């Protein structure tokens, strides 16, 4: 009796299962018939993109210009060696204060134009076969960056730094504070360059150039001019002054432009 009830219950579950499978299969057929599950169909946006890119040409344009620098960045510093770290720091502080006083007092530089770039104190050693490594003292170094806009007087500034107590100058770089304006000009040149290329290629293919479809900026920058370390040394001719040639700042812009072809 119990076995008959179990068999009947299983049969009933089987009917429910078959009904569920039938509904699922029917639903799938209905969806497929409606085109919802048609894997062979292409998305609408892909087709639109493909149509939009037909009969187009993509070219890269480069624009360049060279401009006179309007700012110099001078990296200078003081370093003092003494028997103790405290003495080295005190000596460096005295020299550094004299340099800052000269920059503000003589040339009227503002705080925004003066920035400490590094400060460190390190031990100094000497090595002998008898004693090995021996501590001989400490060196304190304080470096700063000076933003300088009187380009023609850069050499004069370097001399004044040495006279005030700066005993190292790491280098001078020349740049521009009009980067945005100059890079915009370079990008305009890049657009002209791209159009010239596209017109030439279109003509070679027997086509003519249509309107711009897309423009992508690939980058624009003004490359600073760097001058190597300046040695602060006294010369036999005390009237001689440091001479620095600023050169020119190169500005470049790049674009990728897509044009429609007629």
Automatic annotation (TrEMBL):
<dbReference type="GO" id="GO:0006974">
    <property type="term" value="P:DNA damage response"/>
</dbReference>
<dbReference type="InterPro" id="IPR007497">
    <property type="entry name" value="SIMPL/DUF541"/>
</dbReference>
<dbReference type="InterPro" id="IPR052022">
    <property type="entry name" value="26kDa_periplasmic_antigen"/>
</dbReference>
<dbReference type="Pfam" id="PF04402">
    <property type="entry name" value="SIMPL"/>
</dbReference>
<protein>
    <submittedName>
        <fullName>SIMPL domain-containing protein</fullName>
    </submittedName>
</protein>
């Amino acid at each position: 009796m119990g076995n008959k009830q179990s068999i009947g219950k299983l049969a009933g579950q089987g009917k429910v299962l078959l009904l569920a499978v039938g509904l699922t299969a029917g639903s799938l057929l209905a969806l497929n018939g409606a085109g919802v599950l048609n894997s062979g169909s292409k998305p609408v946006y892909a087709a639109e993109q493909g149509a939009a890119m037909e009969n187009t040409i993509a070219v890269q344009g480069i624009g360049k210009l060279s401009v006179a620098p309007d700012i110099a960045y001078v990296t200078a510093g003081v370093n003092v060696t003494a028997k103790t770290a405290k003495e080295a720091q005190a000596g460096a502080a005295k020299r550094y204060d004299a340099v800052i006083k000269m920059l503000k007092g003589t040339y009227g530089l503002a705080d925004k134009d003066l920035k400490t770039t590094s400060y460190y104190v390190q031990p100094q050693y000497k090595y002998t076969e008898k004693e090995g490594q021996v501590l001989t003292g400490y060196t304190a170094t304080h470096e700063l960056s000076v933003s300088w806009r009187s380009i023609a007087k850069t050499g004069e500034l370097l001399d004044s730094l040495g006279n005030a107590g700066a005993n190292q100058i790491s280098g001078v770089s020349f740049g521009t504070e009009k980067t945005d304006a100059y890079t915009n000009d370079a990008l305009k040149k890049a657009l002209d360059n791209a159009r010239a290329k596209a017109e030439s290629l279109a003509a070679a293919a027997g086509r003519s150039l249509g309107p711009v479809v897309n423009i992508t900026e690939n980058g624009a920058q003004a490359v600073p001019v760097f001058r190597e370390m300046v040695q602060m040394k006294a010369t036999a001719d005390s009237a001689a002054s440091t001479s620095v040639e600023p050169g020119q700042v190169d500005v470049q812009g790049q674009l990728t432009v897509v044009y429609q072809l007629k």
